[in-house]
Design a protein that fits this description.
binds 2-oxoglutaric acid, 298 residues, alpha+beta, single chain
């Protein structure tokens, strides 16, 4: 299947207010490919609320640093963020930690439409959310340090092997600013063995903690494709689906929201007492010694 045909197959629209918004075609595509692109998923009001709230945070820090946003080269809700990046990069790191606490973020990730989709995708009546797996990424132009290499979500978040990530762009994403790259169908491989580099993320870069063993050979057997999306669309994908970041080569920050959901009724989740992963201080090796490949260094 061509990339365009595959994207078309993964794209789902619909009445997001309905109790069961996903139709049979979308559910079949998810079962086969492990991912879906939900068009116009987020409510416009919540998206706007996020932009207003983020603009407020940025404005407060600009004022504190006595920076004049009129000098900004960005003409968007995050006007002035470029000035903050130049003036005080560590401070922008603290804004990164703060934005996930905004009310609009909770509104977006706990909207009834999200729970409806999660109930359908996981075929469960009791989905849960993994609080430490919620975040708002700010990927800045030409800054590659925090880009995520190919990975599955499962070893980072554990909890349930029936689990879904919601990845929601807060600005349009494309090949220029780095939309997500997915390997559809790889969820069927199950949890892949990993080399453990920093089991508890003590070095504070989650992207350098685990490394999939034999990755090149796995990728050689699968199609991978970039998935451009508009602000307010949502990508939903299975916890075993291989995916990775792409660099931001545009002139503005790429803002995206991530939240992770799991099935409370899943046998693995029950056996493990719904325990989360490294963000909850849990060492993956304790729960999955069979998935640890090669000599461990961390
Ligand atoms: O947004 C990105 O660049 C990567 C995000 C990702 O891989 C994840 O949230 O698991």
């Amino acid at each position: 299947m061509s990339g365009a045909a595959l994207i078309e197959r993964l794209t789902a629209g619909g009445d997001w207010q309905a109790a069961r918004p996903l139709g049979d075609r979308a559910l079949a595509a998810y079962a086969e490919h492990g991912c879906l692109l939900l068009k116009d998923f987020a409510s416009a009001a919540l998206l706007q609320a996020f932009r207003d709230e983020a603009a407020t945070l940025i404005g407060l820090v600009l004022d504190e640093l006595r920076l004049d946003r009129a000098a900004s080269r960005v003409d968007r809700f995050d006007r002035g963020l470029d000035l903050l990046l130049e003036a005080d990069r560590p401070r922008v790191g603290r804004i990164y930690t703060a934005v996930r606490k905004l009310p609009s973020v909770y509104g977006l990730i706990t909207a009834p439409r999200v729970w409806a989709v999660m109930r359908q995708l996981m075929a469960t009546r009791l989905p849960g959310i993994y609080p430490n797996g919620t975040g708002v990424r700010m990927d800045h132009p030409a800054e590659d340090t925090y880009l995520s290499p190919w990975h599955q979500e499962y070893p980072y978040n554990l909890t349930s092997d029936n689990a879904v990530t919601l990845w929601l762009p807060l600005v349009d994403v494309d090949e220029a600013n780095g939309c997500l790259r997915l390997a559809p169908g790889t969820q069927r491989l199950g949890a892949l063995p990993v080399r453990v580099r920093d089991a508890l993320n003590e070095r504070r870069n989650a992207n350098e903690t685990l490394e999939i063993d034999g990755l090149e050979a796995i990728l050689a057997r699968h199609t991978t494709l970039p998935v451009p999306a508009a602000a307010g669309d949502a990508l939903v994908f299975h916890t075993f689906l291989l995916h990775r970041s792409q660099p931001n080569r545009s002139r503005a920050t790429r803002w995206t929201l991530q939240a992770r959901y799991f099935d409370f009724l899943n046998p693995t989740a029950i056996r493990h007492d719904w325990v989360g992963g490294m963000n909850e201080g849990v060492d993956f090796r304790r729960y999955h010694p069979e998935l640890v490949a090669g000599p461990a260094d961390g």
